[in-house]
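Recap from last week: sequence in, structure out.
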Amino acid sequence: MPRRSCEIRLSVDVEDDDLAGVADDGIVPPRSFHGWLGLLATLDALLAAVPSAADVAGAPDEPPMPYGGGS
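Predicted structure tokens:
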């Protein structure tokens, strides 16, 4: 699997053994979570949306022309 990385900002409120908060990567809308499993699911969803270095390096600068377009 290609390497991927991103920065994720966490805002976490902890009361007794309960936690809740918001995770924000600055790209997609912030995602709220509740509990440890919610935090893991939120991190998993944010990381799944991160393109790999190969995807970014191989991405064209401009979108391809539709069929029949161009000169």
